Amino acid sequence: MNKFISITLIALLSIGTLIAQENNKKMETPIYGFTMKTLDGKERSLADFKGKVIMVVNTASFCGYTPQYKDLEALYKLYKDKGFVVIGFPSNNFGKQEPGNNGDIATFCERNYGVTFPMFGKISVKGDDIHPLYKYLTTETQFKEEIGWNFTKFLVDRNGNVVAKFASKVKPNEKEVIAKIDELVAQK
Question: CA-to-CA distance for 103 and 98, rounded, in angstroms?
Fold first, then answer.
């Protein structure tokens, strides 16, 4: 009888564990489901950033807002040890201000701004060929509108929820951005 109870308990615990794992998969936020190509052509899952505060930003090398790379890099260095990451997505959607290939973009970012935060391959952030990540950001979150220009910034909390959006003209080091980052990195 004790052997039967032990086997039954083990079976019930195993089933409970499987149900909990399945529920965790269902609760996982969509942002972590995207796998993107980096500037050097390698696949990288956004699930790699699970548990971090993420700033998602569409970038361009020849835009009036391009100097924001400097501020984005400074933010990344200041907060990376607190669980914060900036991830950049070059796009050529606005004024053809990102005409180069991924190698050109990598060289430009490193040479001119010393960018060390993760940069991904060039994608479309609006229009008929919008990348699924940006389709998600602009249609499936509370921020349901097209990207207006380069250097639009989204903040994602540690649980993968898109919680803030800042327009291109809002610099990464402005008080409202810093305050939101401080709030999010303080949450565990």
Answer: 12
Each residue of 66-91: pLDDT tens digit?
999 999 999 999 999 999 999 999 99
Amino acid of residue 26? K
Name which of 70, 64, 76, 54 is nearest 154 in CA terms: 54
CATH code: domain of residue 162: 3.40.30.10
Q: Point out the residues that are catalytic.
A: 63
Please tell me the distance from the alpha carbon of residue 65 to that of residue 132, in angstroms, as a whole number. 24
Pair type for strands 53-59 and 43-45? unpaired
Q: Is residue 113 part of a domain?
A: yes
Asked whether residue 93 is domain-assigned, the answer is yes
Residue 126 belongs to some domain of the structure: yes
Q: CA–CA distance from 24 to each of 19, 20, 101, 163 (Å)?
A: 9, 6, 38, 21
pTM as predicted: 0.85
| 20 belongs to a structural domain | no
